[in-house]
Amino acid sequence: MSAMLVMPVMAILFAPAIWFLLGRPRFLSSLPPAEKPGKASAAISIIIPARNEEANIARLLESIQQQSSQPLETIVVNDGSTDNTASVATKLGARVIDVEALPDGWMGKPWACQQGAHAANAANTANATNTTNSATGDWLLFLDADLILEPSALHALSQVCAGSDQVHSICPHHVIKHPYEQLSAYFNVLMLAGVNAFGIGKSATDNAALFGQCLLISQKHYQQVKGHETVKDKALENFHLARQFKQLGIPCSCYLGKGLIHMRMFPNGIGELWSSWKKGFTSGAAHTAPRALLLSSLWISGMMLTIVCLILSFTSYASDPFVLVTALAYLIYACQSLRAFKLAGTFSAWNALFFPLSLLFYQTLFFSALIDKKRGKTTNWKGRAVQ
User: Fold this and answer.
1) φ and ψ at 167, to 5 degrees?
2) Which of 56, 73, 186, 272 is deepest in the core (most CB within 10 A)?
3) Beta bridge partners of 93
């Protein structure tokens, strides 16, 4: 075998890594009956931290109003918004609370979530005290403001947590509307891979993390970990919360929200996309389970090798076997990318066919975030500096 031929062969050998990470996806919409009992349901308090979410909050609240099973309450935590987030939420029937001043050592989202959980717990305790048969919010459902729920989503969530002693999180399906949003493809896919919940083998789920966009926690478990206080200074609080639950022996389960829960992440342009993914990006990689990080790196390396081989194929140094094996490697990764993209969102088949474009964007942002982190530079997100 020639030295050049080794490269595309290695690329093909790295390809199965993604199967060990995403080979066994679990969809909220297709849980077996044993995990979705038909009668019991749980009382759920919805908590939505919102900072300048005027453009998103109406869609989410309207989708909650259309649920076949209604929550006990919907709390919007107005996190210092300078737009009409609070008034829009109030008009749509949500209970709006303004967060207290951000204490030293806290980041914005954990503080907002903690304030919302405290408000829900206080109200539910009062209800239970004043009315003998009054329902109480057994579960806290933390939702990002850019989500939209299909009409049966809350019913599915209530059935999932009925009789459950786990923490549940759901990754929303990313809805793509503009061409620049296609550049999110590998960020979304590697976010799925990074939670280490959908792979092959027991070790693929033992150390599962959590998705922060849709997080369902019982009041009991939330109090056991002292709420968001234990992750008050973390940009990616979902990873750190999962670690706290694991230390207490509380299992975490993850699902894909396709068909029931979706999100629209970056309607305001590529600058918003860049800043959002850059926020906490290197921190996320640092807290990813070693197995998931290794396998993700192998898969990305295989695709990068394929791109290099593709370029070399147009030179006079490339032999016919080299070109043939490179074409096979390209086809394999294009098909793998298509399958992974469909798990994560409504990404185009053209995006998968021309995967080098999205992949090179991913690599560019990754190294930019890494350099900024080493320099101590922060990313501005909604008026706050995030490192």
Assistant:
1) -100, 135
2) 186
3) none
| pLDDT over 70 (residue 202) | no
Whether 303 and 8 have beta carbons less than 8 Å apart is answered as: no
Q: What pLDDT is attached to residue 280? A: 64
pTM above 0.85, yes or no: yes
For residues 97 and 39, the model is more confident at 97
271-286 burial: b if 16+ Cβ within 10 Å, else e: eebbebbbbbbbbbbe
List residues bridging with 169 in a β-sheet. Answer: 215, 254
Q: Please identify, in words, the CATH class of the domain defined by 25-274.
A: alpha beta
The distance of Cα 123 from the centroid of its chain, to the nearest Å, equals 29
The predicted pLDDT at position 283 comes to 59
> What is the structure's pLDDT at 40?
39
- Please, are residues 36 and 213 in contact by the beta-carbon 8 Å criterion? no
Q: Which of 133-137, 142-146, 260-264 has the lowest mean pLDDT?
A: 133-137
| Helix, strand, coil distribution of the chain in percent, nearest 5 | 55, 15, 35
Please report which helix (H) or strand (E) contains residue 188, including its range. helix 185-194
Query: What is the three-class DSSP state of 288?
Result: coil
Task: Give which of 147, 165, 156 is closest to 211, Cα–Cα.
Answer: 147
Residues with Cβ < 8 Å from 302, sequence gap 6 or more? 10, 11, 12, 13, 14, 15, 17, 329, 333
Q: Can you tell me the distance from the alpha carbon of 213 to that of 119, in angstroms, rounded to the nearest whole number?
A: 20
**Is the confidence at residue 92, as pLDDT, over 90?**
yes
Beta strand pairing call for 252-256 and 167-171: parallel
- Report how far residue 107's alpha carbon sits from residue 57's, in angstroms, rounded to the nearest whole number: 21
For the chain, residues classed under CATH 3.90.550.10 are 25-274
